[in-house]
Amino acid sequence: MFSFGKTEEESARLIAMEENYAIISFKPNGTIIHANDNFLNVLGYKLNETVGNHHSMFCDKAYASSEEYKKFWESLANGISQINEFERFTKDGTSVWIQASYTPVKNSKGKVIRVVKFAQDITDAKKVINSANQAIDLAKTGIMKQTILESTQNEGIESLKNGINDLFNIVSTKVDGDLNKISEALEAFQNLNFEYRLNGKLGETSEGLNSLANVINDMLVENKANGLTLDQGSDLLLANVDKLNQSSNEAAASLEETAAALEEVTSTVRNNTENVTKVANNSNTVINSANQGEKLANQTTVAMDEINVQVNSINEAISVIDQIAFQTNILSLNAAVEAATAGEAGKGFAVVAQEVRNLASRSAEAAKEIKDIVENARSKADEGKKIAGNMIEGYIELNKNIEETTNLIADIEMSSSQQLKGIEQINTAVTQLDQQTQQNAVIASETKNIAEITDKIAKLIVSNANEKEFIGKNKVTVKDMGLEI
Questions:
Q1: Is 183 helix (H, G, I), strand (E, B) or coil?
Q2: Domain of 378?
Q3: Which of 8, 115, 118, 454 has minimal Cβ neighbours within 10 Å of its Cβ?
Q4: Separation CA 353–CA 337 (nearest Å)
Q5: pTM higher than 0.70 for the full model?
Q6: Is the pLDDT assigned to residue 114 strictly greater than 90?
């Protein structure tokens, strides 16, 4: 086919091409000049069935009559090569694909004198590629469980096909061969429906999605149960916080009143303590006065005894006077008798005797009166002594009572001081407790706010859980946490 004037190397190169390529030559208008055996074998023709005929005998009739096909040969006639994959048809109408280079051959003047086509049959490779494209298109719809059965001698394409088959196999074992199931599951999950499960012979991914759905489902069940429990707990907390808040406010008010009352009591006890101290001081004065009174009573008793001594002396003197008066009276009587006996001479002496007797009588009477007065004085002195003795006993008893009273007052003073100290400590403690209670009231109010927020969060958790569909949704109950409402 290429026997004109070539060197040995060029001839060898052409022979090699003749052996490995399907080669056919045409006139610039597409009329077949010659075809080698490789070409004829691919398309099922004999040489005499092709030479003189037009290239269009290998093409689809619609394509052969198209403007594209016309331009194809015009380009070749103008010296423009056409290299591509082309579909051609065998004698029996079977479609074959070739990888071909339509190369214009020019003379020395640059005019195209023929077109030589070098081609290789790539039908098997094309079938594999088409099958791969179809498989990929099917895979785009989510179907991964498929195998490309076509094969080719082209090692690169065959290796690519095997790689795609391996990929389909790996993916199908991961996702059960149908990605649509995965998409449906993911769409259901996206729509918060976690009741959806993949069924059938599941791949690893499907099993993983089911496991994920189970985990999320369990989490939602737990979440709702926690929400319900938290809601119940927050309701209880709110109720208790309301009570605590009310109690704290009432306690704060009561303690405030108690603090005021205690302050008043403290003031009263302080005044009482001061008064008791004054009484204690006064009792000391009374003791001193009683001691002084007892001393004076003792002195009075002594004085009364001395008076009695003097009275006794007076009585003794009066007795002497009374005796003298008696004797004087006797003597005056004797004198009067003697004067009477003397007669006229004794009249003067009788008068004197009478006067002496009168004086003696008056002295006796006076002594008697003095004796009566002295006896009365003695009686009064004895009475005074008795009274003084009673006074001494009274003062002794008074001192004893005053001492007991003083001791009691001292005890009361000590108790009052201790009581004052205790009440002041209680007052301080109540004041601190009042402050703490006020703080507790504030904390209770803040706790109530937190409890209300917690209650809202709990209800929000339950609401969010109820927005999702999951297995056992309507059977979720409150956890038994030992709460009593």
A1: helix
A2: 225-467
A3: 8
A4: 9
A5: no
A6: yes
